[in-house]
Write a structure and sequence with these properties.
mainly alpha, 25 helices, globular
């Protein structure tokens, strides 16, 4: 590790000033010494790089995820100075595709500023998978007109995976042609999902702009909806009014396929929609839909904005079921599930308890998932000890508890010094 740091310092430290600019021989000698020193440093690291690559190739096919992660960490530990030696291993056209993917991830983490020439060379003439990886890495290159020109040309003239990668790179960089590339990808259905995948880690303002254009151009929406909604969920809340307008237009469009409209309603439900005028109008219209799933999805979103009428409409059918047979466990559970969806955690927890009591009084076993649902409601209501006790009663194994620990609703419980141990351990 110390050797790698020393090499990095040597490569990145400012070199001694050359002789007078008027002395070309002195300048040439200075450049020769710099190149020789760089070659010496790289040569000293070559064995370590080859060993790290060999370790990755040994586990890439049959090794566990943990072994691959350790091998990848070993590559990253080589540091920025190793970047020129790692670039050739982006070629995974034969049986080393996983190794090539991990090298790509390593270079992205270390930065590509010092290997632009090598990446451009690969992007212009190598195997197709290698060109795609090089183009994806060029998306993170420092601003440079010739790189933008190359990527824009590939986004226009290439085809298939190469064009898709170039389109994503142009959009990620936000260069002058980005908006035209977005419109073409969306309008012609040219792998538009790449556009949104490429936005991972981009500035929220950039994601907002791209999504606004997308939801105004929905011809091929089914192709890119899921990655677009994923980016949408990453944006700060509330969303911009322009973006709410775009979403409202898709929700209200009866020519759109039901799964598309449901996908947007489900995302809005997770985000707790704002009281945007056009969005509320669209949701109100869909709440009258003959399609039961669309109707309920719209009513849930309206209830989350504080619409009491929507909540009453949602609850009415469950209230009727319970009134008809107060010993019917499913009726209490279904109402509890809906109360949980609209964040009425306290009432949801009460209904789950009634369902549990009915099960226990009839000597039926209580399904573990019912106790988990009750724990979600209790955690949402801030009752962490009760949530802990409900989960303990569920008798979940370690892997299931670990999965629950990733749910936002259990975040406070996980963080609790005493009650969180159940999910942390």
């Amino acid at each position: 590790m110390l050797a790698a740091l020393a090499c990095l310092a040597l490569l990145l430290a400012p070199a001694p000033a050359p002789g007078p600019a008027s002395d070309p021989d002195s300048l040439q000698e200075f450049l020769r010494r710099v190149r020789a020193e760089r070659a010496r440093v790289l040569d000293s690291m070559r064995a370590d790089v080859e060993a790290a690559i060999a370790a990755m190739e040994e586990v890439e096919s049959l090794g566990s995820d943990e072994q691959v992660a350790r091998a990848a960490a070993r590559m990253r530990a080589l540091g920025p100075a190793a970047r020129p030696l790692l670039v050739p291993y982006l070629d995974g056209k034969t049986d080393h595709a996983r190794r090539a993917d991990e090298v790509e991830a390593t270079l992205r983490e270390l930065g590509v500023g010092t290997v632009l020439e090598e990446l451009l060379e690969l992007a212009r003439g190598s195997s197709l998978p290698t060109r795609v990886r090089a183009i994806r890495l060029l998306a993170d290159a420092p601003p440079e007109p010739r790189i933008d020109a190359f990527l824009e040309d590939q986004a226009t003239t290439a085809t298939g995976a190469l064009q898709a990668a170039a389109m994503g790179a142009v959009v990620r960089r936000g260069s002058g042609a980005a908006d035209q590339v977005i419109d073409r990808a969306l309008g012609e259905g040219l792998a538009p999902d790449e556009i949104f995948v490429a936005l991972e880690g981009a500035a929220p303002t950039r994601i907002d702009l791209v999504l606004r254009r997308a939801f105004a151009n929905t011809k091929y929406i089914a192709k890119w909806l899921e990655p677009a909604l994923q980016r949408l969920r990453e944006l700060p809340q509330p969303l911009s009014s322009e973006l709410y307008d775009g979403l409202a237009g898709v929700i209200a469009d009866e020519t759109q396929e039901t799964p598309v409209r449901l996908g947007i309603l489900g995302t809005l439900e997770r985000l707790e929609p704002a009281k945007d005028k056009r969005l509320l109008e669209a949701l109100t219209g869909v709440s009258q839909s003959p399609d039961e799933t669309l109707r309920k999805g719209a009513l849930v979103c309206l209830a989350l904005t504080g619409d009491r009428s929507a909540k009453s409409t949602l609850m009415a059918e469950y209230d009727e079921l319970i009134a008809a047979n107060r010993n019917w466990v499913a009726a209490w559970e279904q109402r509890a599930d809906m109360l949980l969806r609209i964040r009425d955690y306290r009432e949801a927890a009460k209904d789950y308890q009634v369902a549990i009591d009915l099960d226990e009084s009839s000597r039926r076993g209580v399904p573990p998932e019912r106790r988990v649902q009750q724990a979600r409601a209790l955690a949402g209501d801030g009752k962490l000890k009760a949530a802990h006790d409900a989960l303990q009663e569920a008798g979940l194994n370690r892997s299931k508890r670990a999965k629950l620990a990733t749910e936002p609703i259990f975040a406070a419980l996980v963080a609790h010094s005493r009650y969180g141990k159940l999910l942390r351990d």
